[in-house]
Amino acid sequence: MDAVIIAAGYGSRLRDLSDSKPLTPVAGVPLIELGVRQAHAAGAARVTVVTGHEAARVEAFLADLSRRSGIEVLTERVADWSRPNGFSVMAGAARVARAGGRDFLLMMADHLFAAEILHRLVRVGAPDRGVTLAIDHRTDSPLVDPDDATWVRLGAAGRIAAIGKTIAPYDAVDCGAFLATPELPEAIAEAIAAGAAGSLSDGMQRLADRGRAATLDLGTAWWIDVDDPRAHALAEAQAPTALAPLYG
Fold it and tell me: One Pfam family from the UniProt entry (predicted)?
């Protein structure tokens, strides 16, 4: 199993804490290290990190992390990190393919997950889906930022009917973890060719329109999007317990 972690963006809302979002520490451990370690713990033998903003620093850190941990970490740098995140997904998927892989666990660098979420997600692949997204029905959770969340509306059999930051009504929130097949980067490329900006959600919506976007309800499991100082403070307080094995 491969994993791809998207770590190319700037992270302006955390700039007062760190000038590199992936290197922002949470209880002493950088976000990107936690991401790599949780992907590996879920079964990813190889982790590809897509870099962009402060790429050289992030890549140097990852090279050292690979030496320290023994985890195979590859990097793929995008030239223009300001473009929508779908471009990073396509770049990461291409790196996986060049390394001989196919399906991959897709994660955002600023999201942290209880181990059970990723362990469940990597086991739900099936021929009837092009992607499976972890979702949370607790849309009013204090851990969810309603101003930044990506919302999901469900259709038949728990499949995604609509996804985006401005949809209404909605049933759940996108948790930032996916089990992806090559259909996902292909759908993003199709969306761009049709005039879309190129976000991950653009590709997800195309798969949803085909009935190929499934979901995994994470129930009451812990996760958090560390996207602003408030969320960072919550993560600092909760992550050492929720992710105890990663803190050793």
Answer: NTP_transf_3
CA distances from 186 to 45, 79, 159, 163, 208 (A): 24, 20, 19, 18, 13
d(CA 211, CA 5): 25
Q: Which residues are CB-neighbours of 11 under 8 A, at least 6 positions away? A: 18, 20, 21, 22, 24, 53, 110, 227
Amino acid found at 84: P
Does the pLDDT of residue 174 top 90, yes or no? yes
- The CA distance from 26 to 41, in Å, is 18
Q: Is 240 exposed, middle or buried (0-12, 13-18, 19+ CB in 10 A)?
A: middle
Q: Which CATH architecture has domain 2-242?
A: Alpha-Beta Complex (3.90)
Residues 154, 172 contacting (CB under 8 angstroms):
yes
Which neighbouring-strand residues pair with 75? 49
Is the per-residue pLDDT at 248 higher than 80? no
